[in-house]
Design goal:
By secondary structure, the protein is mainly alpha-helical. The protein is built from eight helices and two strands, in the order αααββααααα. Helix 2 runs antiparallel to helix 6, helix 3 packs across helix 6 and helix 5 runs antiparallel to helix 6.
């Protein structure tokens, strides 16, 4: 059930959003990376190319993370069950999708992503400035992800055609069939992997709110 006491205005939504650790942590990371990028200087057209590349890849990355990490199931190694915090928390989010207190990615998950991103960007880019361009923009998009995801699950509903598409896509994922509509902030991954059918073309799932009981009816694109 939708939170009756949830935010009803943009100001209330922002206030509630920044009460949580994940958005505050991401803001600090974005500003730190941006400050480092400005301090390094040496701007070029390649900074724009890095940003463009991230925009092209982001919807695919978002789709893959949602399917392969957030919807990951527990697995066993040498008789020991492994159930990481991020997918475990995501299952709780599906069980109670209108609970605004549990929908954020855990801070420890972002901490791991930051460490891996630093290694990846610094290792791949020919100049340190370009690495911090990529880091700044990537984490800004991660912050945008948290904000849009929060709004979609809150009572506050911005009135724009773009937001309406995002709102409808993600609500279908939670209420129609959890094996489709994986995009949250960008929908290119769903179009690419053909996981954004018309709602009437997909059978309603009984396990949208119980991922632990879901079968293997994974996305049609895989």
């Amino acid at each position: 059930m939708q939170d009756a006491h949830g935010p009803r205005t943009l100001r209330d939504a922002a206030r509630r959003f920044f009460r949580h650790a994940s958005p505050r942590f991401l803001c600090a990371v974005v500003f730190s990376c941006l400050a480092a990028r400005i301090a390094l200087g040496d701007w070029s057209v390649w900074d724009g190319a890095v940003v463009a590349g991230i925009l092209v890849y982001w919807p695919v990355q978002e789709w893959l993370i949602h399917l392969l990490i957030l919807h990951a199931r527990p697995f066993s190694i040498l008789g020991r069950t492994i159930d990481p915090a991020v997918p475990r928390k995501h299952r709780a989010h599906h069980r109670d999708p209108w609970n605004l207190e549990i929908l954020f990615i855990p801070v420890q998950g972002f901490a791991t992503a930051i460490a891996l991103s630093l290694l990846l960007w610094i290792g791949l880019m020919p100049r340190l400035g370009l690495a911090f361009t990529g880091l700044s923009f990537s984490f800004a998009l991660a912050l945008r992800y948290e904000w849009i995801h929060f709004l979609i699950h809150s009572p506050y509903r911005p009135r724009s055609r773009h937001y309406e598409r995002l709102w409808r896509n993600h609500r279908l994922h939670h209420t129609r069939n959890e094996h489709y509509w994986y995009g949250v902030t960008m929908l290119g991954g769903d179009r690419l992997f053909r996981t954004a059918p018309r709602p009437g073309e997909v059978e309603a799932s009984a396990t949208c709110m119980a991922l632990e009981r879901a079968g293997d009816g994974r996305a049609a694109g895989l």
